[in-house]
């Protein structure tokens, strides 16, 4: 059975207790698969990228008909860091809900091709208005030349710059290393594993270091980053405290000795 997240952010925990470790976050409008009913309050779920954790039922719609309709018709991502969904198409309007980058909405209608506002439905079923420029249609990676895809993922990663580090986080409110990389790829139509390792069955494959290009992924022990070109990479690290840029070049002022070429465990790419 599938379900849809209706909270701004639904926490996935290591065990079915609120105080337990946060292993992932699932954003508003994202689907999950219910794999076990634990009790009156908790279910075990699996995300679309096969990550598992325990979620509170109060954050989910678990109605098969509504979920199936949503999966067919919810077709846009929020790409603004924080986007208010308003009751009316004017900035002074009452707020229905605030969504974070990566949330999924159903595009209903615009007030004209040149209108600033569009009508959207959020996962709860409520209908409101958002700025057109805050929405991005779901896209398939294969619609773009490889070079454009690489540039796009780098620019999207840069839009998270300075977001605070949060273990298990996946939004501009707080994000970890694999959360950043997986969200960046997801926003461009590619689902990768949400962890700092290469896993069979996902599109990221290991490549030689000398084949490294912009948009590929760097894997360190327990950490990952997105390569920007010119020896620079962007990542969210516990040591740095936020999404930041560092360099693999030992002579560069942004070099980090603990994340050197010699410490790499793998380089990953979808372009093989």
UniProtKB/TrEMBL annotation:
The lineage of its organism: Bacteria, Bacillati, Bacillota, Bacilli, Bacillales. This is SH3 domain-containing protein. Residues 1-64, 72-139 form the SH3b domain. InterPro entries: NLP_P60_dom (IPR000064), Papain-like_cys_pep_sf (IPR038765), Peptidase_C40 (IPR051202), SH3-like_bac-type (IPR003646). Coiled coil: none annotated. Belongs to the peptidase C40 family. Residues 147-266 form the NlpC/P60 domain. The keyword Hydrolase applies. It comes from Lysinibacillus pakistanensis. PROSITE patterns: NLPC_P60, SH3B. It holds the Pfam family NLPC_P60. The keyword Hydrolase applies. It comes from the Bacteria. SUPFAM superfamilies: Cysteine proteinases. Keywords: Hydrolase, Protease, Thiol protease. PANTHER family: MUREIN DD-ENDOPEPTIDASE MEPH-RELATED.
């Amino acid at each position: 059975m599938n379900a849809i997240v209706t909270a701004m952010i639904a926490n996935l925990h290591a065990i079915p207790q609120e105080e337990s470790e946060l292993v992932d976050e699932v954003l508003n409008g994202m689907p999950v698969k219910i794999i076990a009913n634990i009790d009156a309050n908790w279910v075990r779920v699996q995300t679309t990228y096969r990550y598992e954790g325990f979620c509170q039922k109060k954050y989910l719609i678990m109605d098969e008909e509504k979920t199936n309709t949503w999966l067919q018709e919810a077709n846009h991502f929020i790409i603004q860091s924080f986007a208010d969904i308003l009751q009316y198409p004017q900035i002074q309007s009452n707020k229905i809900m605030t969504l974070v980058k990566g949330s999924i909405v159903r595009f209903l209608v615009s007030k004209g091709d040149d209108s600033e506002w569009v009508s959207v439905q959020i996962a709860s079923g409520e209908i409101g208005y958002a700025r057109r420029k805050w929405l991005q249609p779901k896209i398939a990676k294969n619609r773009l030349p490889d070079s454009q895809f690489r540039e796009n993922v780098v620019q999207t990663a840069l839009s998270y710059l300075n977001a605070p580090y949060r273990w298990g986080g996946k939004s501009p409110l707080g994000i970890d290393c694999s959360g950043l990389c997986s969200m960046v790829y997801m926003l461009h139509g590619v689902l990768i594993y949400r962890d700092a390792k290469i896993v069979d069955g996902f599109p990221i494959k290991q490549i030689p270091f000398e084949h490294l290009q912009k948009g590929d992924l760097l894997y360190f022990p327990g950490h990952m980053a997105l390569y920007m070109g010119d020896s620079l990479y962007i990542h969210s690290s516990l040591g740095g405290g936020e999404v930041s840029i560092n360099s693999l070049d030992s002579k560069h002022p942004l070099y980090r000795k603990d994340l050197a070429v010699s410490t790499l465990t793998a380089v990953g790419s979808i372009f093989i």
